Every structure is written in structure tokens, then in C-alpha cells.
């Protein structure tokens, strides 16, 4: 990966992130904290959906297997449910594509809007889960599709925040590279380990919260995403204004 231009808190994010040891300031902290928060939320939501609806919602691998099995067995009712979950996840990813446009992480993009949208979908899921578990699972699956498509690549890694299959695959690959004698930037396994732990922690958090609140525990990650999205949107606007003021000041000084 070619070297990139320096980054500070008021500049545009460069095309490819620098190693963790060279990154400083708010920008990188936002990326890491946001990724961990989203992954924890996904682990929590998936565990709630498994407990209430009996189906995972933050990835579609199991749903595709279930759909194919149901079709083979002639179970049209369950096949329809699996198809709806798959379609909901895909619809969420489409929404992210419409809003963001590109899969790589850029702090100038409208992640705040999408994060709030995902939170609103989770709130809707929490409201209907008990009476209509499949409808709740569809809303949660759509939220996962929105979230998973928000940031697909970062620093050469394929980053997913709603499941850990790819995370564990990449982590194992990096360990194998290291054992082979190839130097690996430490921020990569550190980030992947953090994402894995966050998803696992979300499941533990669900077990504790759902015992007391039931399906209403879903309101927790819903509120978290809405608040985090609003905070990010406000930070993004302030950051762009600061960047604009800095550039205007530089142009004014150049004219003198």
C-alpha cells in the first residue's frame, strides 16, 4: 500500500489509512469506537432475535441455507419467512449504497444518518417483536443490512460489523502470515480482535438485559445507535466547518 498524506482532525481522511502506530487524533478514534459500538450492537441484536424469533438477523448465510432446505422439503411457509429476512437485509444494504455511494471508510460520508436509520429500524423491531416476531426480525435484519454495508473496507481489511465469520477468517490469516515470518501491522489483528470481542460481548449483554426486559431489551441498542448517529452527524458538520474555516484562512493569507 502506497504511503498516504498526513492526517489531522480537521483534514479530509486520506485514501488509505495509516497504521495504528502512526495515526493520532479524533479521526481514528471515531473509526475504531464506531466500529466497536456497531459490532457490540449487532451481537446484542442477533442474540435477542435468536431468543425471540429463533432466527439470526445480522447475517444471511443461515437464512439462505434454511431457504434452500425449506424449498427442498416443500415447506413454503418457512421458506417465505427465510426469503423475507434475506430480502430485508439486502434492502438495508441498498439503502446504504444510495446514501454513501462507496464502501471504503471516509469520515466525510453520512454515516450519522444511516446509523440513526438503523437505530429507528431496531426501535420498530423492539416494538413488534413479541406480537409479530417475523416482522420484528425483518426490521432488525434490514437494520443489519444498513449497518453492514456502511463500511466494507478499511486499510486493506474487509470490515464487517454484523457478523464475525470474516473477522475470524482475517485474524487467522494474519496469524498464519506472522508464523510464516511475514511482518503484520499490529493495528490489524488488534482491530479484528476488538471486533470479535465486541460481538461476543453484545451477546453476553443481551443475556443479562433480556432476562430483565425481554424483547424490550432491543430498545437499548436502538437508542444507542440513534444517539451515536446524531452525535456523529453533529461532529461531522462541526469538522467540515472547521476545515472550511482553515482553508478560507489559508487562502486569505495567500492573497496578502
Q: Helix share of residues?
A: over 70%
Rg, nearest Å = 20 Å
Query: Total helix count?
Result: 8
Net shape = globular
The chain-level mean pLDDT equals: 83
Q: In terms of structural class, how would the helical and strand content be classed? A: mainly alpha
> What proportion of the residues form beta strands (DSSP E)?
under 5%
| Number of strand segments | 2
**Overall domain count:** 1
The major beta sheet can be summarized as: 2 strands, antiparallel
Low-confidence stretches: 1-23
Strands of the largest sheet, in order across it?
A: 1-2
State the end-to-end CA separation.
39 Å
| Oligomeric state as shown | single chain
List the helices and strands in order: HHHHHEEHHH
What does this structure look like?
The protein is mostly helical and 256 residues long. The protein has helices at residues 26-52, 61-73, 76-100, 111-128, 133-150, 165-180, 187-213, 219-255; strands at residues 153-154, 157-158. It has a two-stranded antiparallel ribbon with strand order 1-2. The two termini are 39 Å apart.
Write a compact overview of the structure shown.
The chain is mainly alpha-helical. Helices cover 71% and strands 2% of the residues.
Topology:
Elements: H1 26-52, H2 61-73, H3 76-100, H4 111-128, H5 133-150, E1 153-154, E2 157-158, H6 165-180, H7 187-213, H8 219-255
Antiparallel strand pairs: 1-2
